[in-house]
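>> received
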Amino acid sequence: MSVIFVSKQSAIVDHEAWMLQMIGQHSSSDNGDHSHCDGGIEERKKIKFQELFDLRTPFLMDDQACKKAVELEAKEANATEGTAFARERKRKRKKKEPRIQGNESEAEVGHIQEVFSALRLTPEFKAHFSYIPTPQDFRLNNSHIRDLRKRFTEATNTVLPLLDECSGQGGRLQYKVIDGKEYVLPPDVRYICGDAADILKHTAGTLYDLVVLDPPWHNKYIKRRKMGHGSHHGYDMMTVEDILRLPIGSVLRDGALVVVWCTNNSSQIREFLTGLHLWGVQLVAKWYWLKVTRGGEPVTPLTDSCLNKRPYEHLFLAQKYKSNGSSSSIPDGLVFSSVPSGLHSHKPPLEEILKPYMCPRPQCLEVFARSLVPGWTSFGLEVLRLQHSSLFQTIT
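>> returned
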């Protein structure tokens, strides 16, 4: 189960558990030389991708993290000594005033804070996010995740050939070598490596009930990474106009749901929502993915507008106009929390949280995909990148 808890306003999603469940359900005891995904072995050993979710502390610069470690050690020492001086300092400490810019951002952050505060009081949240970081965790500053991300980025630096293939005979994981690199393929998937603009060439009249998109929005952070570390640390970005020009409306069944991961750039959001009608859909809900540590802390402060990196992302849900005119039952303003993967654009799974709003056995398509979902069609230039076998090896 990827959804640990869900209510009308909030949810808890476990991306790591979803991946483990997929491996466990579709692994075979007869995998030849691929014992790293053996169903028996995974019960006793961790799998490499689990390290990506071992986020122990919030996102900090190294000097900030070291300062936090010193403060935490001092706090622990004072708590042990129980001095009156420590209590006096605690009383005099002033709380920083939140810095939020713009009425729209203020309302948005206020909503997320209100919903998240209630979510943190639930038994499910307390049980799931129970980790307490140590001073050493702050000193390490999640370096193990950063190291793994760097190694993975280097290992998967390749341009896939054009592909349009299916996998999953027998309901088991399959292993495929393409241009010298091995990929792990879940069952019952169709994966297409190609430009999203050419999607109609591959769908051949197929209509979908759900289309999920994670477009390559223009992003200053990605631009800086490409300039500083090389082009393989980023991707080719698209304008809002280019994204809206994609023929998404032509692959939608009547009443189909379109789910779009969106940038936090307010001007891009406004431009995108203004042109959403070009796909023949109307906006029905806006959700928020709030990224938290293993201890349940937002990865960056919610109320500090001076930070470039917000701890949440927007998810827009739109629906193709229904011929019967019936309204959608999808809740607006849902805030779902999860520990994010250490890899860029490795989004949490949505199939389970969207299931109540879908028809039975829906046809699902992901555009700009970087990984595969059993039963789905996945389309993108990096469609197999997060299926690289290095992520599925057991840790010895």
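>> Residues 62-81 form the longest helix (20 residues).
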